[in-house]
Amino acid sequence: MGLAHLGMTADQERLYRYLLRDTTAGLDRARAELDMPDVERVAAELRALGLLHGTCTAVTPANAVDLLVWRRVDETRRRLTELSVAWDVLAELTEEHRSGRSVRLVEHLTDSSSVTARMQSLLEQDPREFVHLKRRACEPGNSYDAAPFQRLLAGGMRSRTLFSAHVLHEPGQASYARSWHARGDLHRVTREPFRHLAVINRTVAFVQADPADPWAGALQIRQPGVVAMLAEVFEGMWDRAQEVEDLSLSAVEQRVLDALARHDTDEAAARSINVSVRKFRAHVADLMRTLGANSRFQAALRAKERGWL
């Protein structure tokens, strides 16, 4: 059985087998006995493959086959990566056929509503994975309708969100992040600098069109190499980020939780921290969302599991 199926040429195999059989033979003898005038070139090719070391000493058969197999595996992986572009082309053609418009590799969407609508449309068509880098867990005054996104999460879509640890002091940021984390949109916080980024199914990315102007819309990018790189950037930051469940409660949240555990009635608990009953109940509702709890009893259990009580 030959080694051609592992990527060796006929001359490479002849010289390797010759030097393997006769460990004392040199290239001069090999040239004469194999009738191989360009033996130096073939030997250089074998060295490049890792099959010769020193002047002309063949590596062991086990090492040779191992090296050749892994080389073929790498070549196959590269070819599969190249072939994967065909699926990107298919996705583009399918989208053009569906929408009746040209799908460009880079497209400027000029306003936030267009960006949101485009991302929602892509996710509705293929709700597999959504990752998001953004400054805040929630934007003040945001009127975004979250119901469609919740339905996608309930249907099994994988979603992860990274936001800046520098906004945790802002009211509601941590509790908002925890509430979505409990619903399946996993949240982490990062202290690294970044720009806004969203990647859908590792095939389409959205980046801020102008870093100096948050109102300039976004660039939708379909170029496979760029999207893959941006997805890898997100993965690296995600691995280094802090779990949202590891975040400590704010001082107010901790006081409300302690009061809830110590007192039998809302009135007594509210008096103990000097707030109205209405305000206390609003705080309790926020805590339940943070803990993903459907009842106060469940909220208490989850708080104990996390060491907050």
TrEMBL record:
Domain HTH luxR-type as annotated: residue spans: 246-303
Record-linked InterPro entries: Sig_transdc_resp-reg_C-effctor, TrmB-like, Tscrpt_reg_LuxR_C, WH-like_DNA-bd_sf
Molecular function terms, GO-annotated: DNA binding
GO terms (BP aspect): regulation of DNA-templated transcription
Gene3D superfamilies: Winged helix-like DNA-binding domain superfamily/Winged helix DNA-binding domain
PANTHER family registered for this protein in UniProt: HTH-TYPE TRANSCRIPTIONAL REGULATOR TRMBL2
Name of protein: HTH luxR-type domain-containing protein
Lineage of the organism: Bacteria, Bacillati, Actinomycetota, Actinomycetes, Kitasatosporales
